[in-house]
Specification:
Largest sheet: none
Distance between the termini: 26 Å
Length: about 325
Amino acid sequence: MPGFCTQVLRGVGQVVFQANPWTGAAFAVALCMADWRYAAYALGGAALGTSTARWLGVPRDRQEAGLEGFNSALLALCLAVLLGQDRPATALLAAAGCVVVTVGTAAAVRLLSVWDLPPLTLPYCLLAVAVNVAAPAFRRIQPYGDGLAALPGSASGPTALHLPHLARAFLHNVSQLFFLERWHVGALLLAGVFLASRTAGLIACAGSVTGIVTAWALGAPAERIADGTMGYNAVLVALALCGVFLPAAPATLLYALLGAATATALTPAIAALLAPSGGRAFTWPFVLTTLGFLAAARAFPRLTGPHGWSRCRQRGGHGRGRVGS
């Protein structure tokens, strides 16, 4: 049981590539600060995903590193936030979804292994969109009277950023990884990343700043930047491309921040494409940007070195192992 609990906590930590049970525990506490049911959904999702993977005979190294828990943790928490955390129908749907997303993870691992690419949060994104699209058709699932569809519109509102906007945006870019617009949750989540790795914590900060600067330079409304919905994908991309799947070095940091800026610009485009299902980008910008930049990185020896790709694949959080300190 202690070993299984460690795997579950690592699964929660792997949302930001940290296979550290203390990071997962810090994340659970952060979610409790918002609502204890959110923590229960995240931990329960990670536990169910890990248990399903164990029952299906997934290689033990993936279980030990928490790689079978982060997609299911994200999906369960997503459903709790979108469909209501206090509804039995949400809990049942989340439980079923965690089993399905574990199967989807195995499929994604299998398919992307052809190009030696990691699955990232692709299984979660696919199932989250599917549920979002289907929910209005099922009255026991969708708690609202109207559908989730929202037509895309032009940006509106002031674009001038002031210090309160910047402070909120910096921390909300982290808290929105768990669907929450709470600065104190973002602060504790960021502390959890630093607990696992100071380097990863600094890179997460750089990704958040890049998301803010990019969104401001492109003229995004200040409130949209401040709520974190423009910049959370930038945090994930920065972490993935510097220190997880590519070595942590000055050249890869610049490459990672370019990827973070790209994901920020891509976020409203994905949201517009998904407007019929509510316009939520989820982590699609992170997935698409990271896979594209990783595929391209093989053409740039300065980024990978002669053996850099395989070495970082062995350490990478959403690859086969864990990120180091």
